[in-house]
């Protein structure tokens, strides 16, 4: 497993070791001991244990996000695509962070097998780049409706460079999400 820090050092791309031969391929998609050791090597905090797995399937052009949960149910997420392709985005919404309101975007797909570690304190979203895109993620806390929050995916203050057209398929709830200025704590 190879970890690479992004322009926001707390958000990490994970490239698992993939072993292939004429039969196909094998990879270890998660190993807590190796994950924690690799994070520590980078000087990053070890997350709480993963307690929930989620799986979504999206058509090409579906944009989901930007979602987060507030404390005491904030979630760290380990995300990956097992079929199709998605452009995955993490936005730092930690007011005291040096990278506050910066974002990172990474393509995750069933060819590169990359994963993205997004710690607590980030809003998260993605757009499916292919039909039948299956997105999996582990979370460090359970979903809690009272703690959920969202930011508008196209907030000009965030200036996220979403790929593809502007003709995304977006839920009414996500399209009505507030702008960053509506967050209770801003600098």
Question: Describe it for me?
Answer:
- The chain has helices spanning 32-41, 172-175, and strands at 2-5, 12-15, 18-21, 24-27, 52-58, 63-69, 77-83, 85-92, 103-109, 115-118, 122-128, 133-139, 148-150.
- By secondary structure, it is mainly beta.
- It has a single domain (2-178), classed as Jelly Rolls (Sandwich).
- The chain has a six-stranded antiparallel β-sheet with strand order 1-2-10-7-12-5, with no helix packed on it. A five-stranded antiparallel β-sheet has the order 9-8-11-6-13, with no helix packed on it.
- It starts with a strand and ends in a 12-residue tail after the last helix.
- The mean pLDDT is 94.
Write a brief structural summary.
With 187 residues, the protein is mainly β. It contains 2 helices and 13 strands; from the N terminus they run E-E-E-E-H-E-E-E-E-E-E-E-E-E-H.
């Amino acid at each position: 497993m190879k970890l690479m820090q992004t322009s926001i050092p707390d958000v990490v791309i994970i490239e698992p070791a993939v072993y292939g031969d004429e039969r196909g391929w094998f990879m270890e998609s998660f190993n807590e001991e190796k994950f924690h050791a690799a994070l520590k090597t980078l000087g990053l905090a070890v997350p709480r244990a993963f307690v929930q797995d989620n799986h979504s399937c999206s058509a090409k052009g579906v944009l989901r996000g930007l979602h987060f949960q507030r404390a005491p149910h904030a979630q760290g997420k380990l995300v990956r695509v097992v079929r199709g392709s998605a452009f995955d985005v993490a936005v730092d919404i930690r007011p005291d962070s040096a990278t506050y309101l910066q974002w990172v975007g990474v393509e995750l797909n069933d060819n590169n097998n990359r994963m993205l570690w997004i710690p607590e304190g980030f809003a998260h979203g993605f757009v499916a780049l292919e039909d039948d895109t299956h997105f999996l993620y582990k979370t460090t806390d359970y979903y809690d409706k009272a703690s959920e929050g969202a930011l508008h995916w196209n907030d000009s203050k965030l200036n996220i460079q979403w790929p593809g057209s502007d003709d995304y398929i977006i839920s009414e709830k996500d399209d009505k999400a507030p702008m960053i200025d509506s967050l209770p704590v801003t600098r």
